[in-house]
Amino acid sequence: MPGFEVVDAGETHLPGIMAIFNHAVRETFSIWSETETTLEQRKAWLAVRRGAGFPVVVAIDPANPDDVLGYGSFGVFRDFPGYVKTVEHSVYVSPAAQRRGVGRAILATLVQRAKGLGLSAMVGGIDSANAASIALHEQAGFEIQGNLKGVGRKFGKSLDLVFMVKAL
Ligand SMILES: CC(C)(COP(=O)(O)OP(=O)(O)OC[C@H]1O[C@@H](n2cnc3c(N)ncnc32)[C@H](O)[C@@H]1OP(=O)(O)O)[C@@H](O)C(=O)NCCC(=O)NCCS
Question: CATH number for the domain including 138?
């Protein structure tokens, strides 16, 4: 979609990030939580990610630079020294902006940033029924390397987690 760009997130983007997050909590199985987030929690999350040197990026329309079309980030995969070269990422696109290449552009930016940081691997933890996200990741060169049955639960339903991995 011409007309959007991916930039580092700032505090003015937090309400937009929160709205996308909370929609995913309410309406989807892409975040395994039934509790909406607050602006304070998103603020703290942004500070922690930035403090650790991890990216938080947003897709915006330059004409309305505070409106968030989508966002992505990565952080610690598992908190032991042996995993220091691996990160776990996430990508979310506002329902109104989906299927226009926004998710692909955010994911490509995260891959670039991870390479720039000298990392070895990126891991996405995806609900096994999330065909859109699995297709997005396959297109970006991720492969399914794990399928954990029944490890999640939301809205009374048992959920399977797929790990998709890209070696950098
Ligand atoms: C998954 C998600 C990030 C994709 O973002 P998007 O901006 O809509 O995707 P793009 O337009 O960049 O599409 C890139 C590719 O992803 C795949 N894809 C995206 N949406 C799809 C859908 N609804 N069904 C099947 N494939 C889909 C396609 O392979 C697509 O390539 P194509 O357009 O050439 O067919 C978006 O649907 C979303 O935010 N969903 C809710 C949250 C979520 O599931 N996040 C991922 C958590 S792991």
Answer: 3.40.630.30
Ligand 1 mutation target, pool 28, 127, 133, 139, most atoms within 8 A of CB: 133
Query: Which residue range forms the structural domain that includes residue 119?
Result: 5-167
Ligand 1 atom having least distance to the Cα of 138: 29
CA of 119 from ligand 1 middle (Å) equals: 25
For 3, 5, 66, 95, the CA distances from 63, given in Å and listed in that order, are 8, 11, 9, 19
Q: Assess whether the C-beta atom of 98 lies below 6 angstroms from ligand 1.
A: yes
Is 101 near ligand 1, meaning CB less than 6 Å away? yes
**Look-up of token digits 């930035």:** 50
Print pLDDT tens along the chain (168 aa). 458 999 999 999 999 999 999 999 999 999 999 999 999 999 999 999 999 999 999 999 999 999 999 999 999 999 999 999 999 999 999 999 999 999 999 999 999 999 999 999 999 999 999 999 999 999 999 999 999 999 999 999 999 999 999 999
Q: Distance between CA atoms of 40 and 29, rounded to whole angstroms? A: 23
Ligand 1 pocket, residue 112 CB under 6 Å? no
Q: What is the count of structural domains for the chain?
A: 1
Q: Is the pTM of this model over 0.85?
A: yes
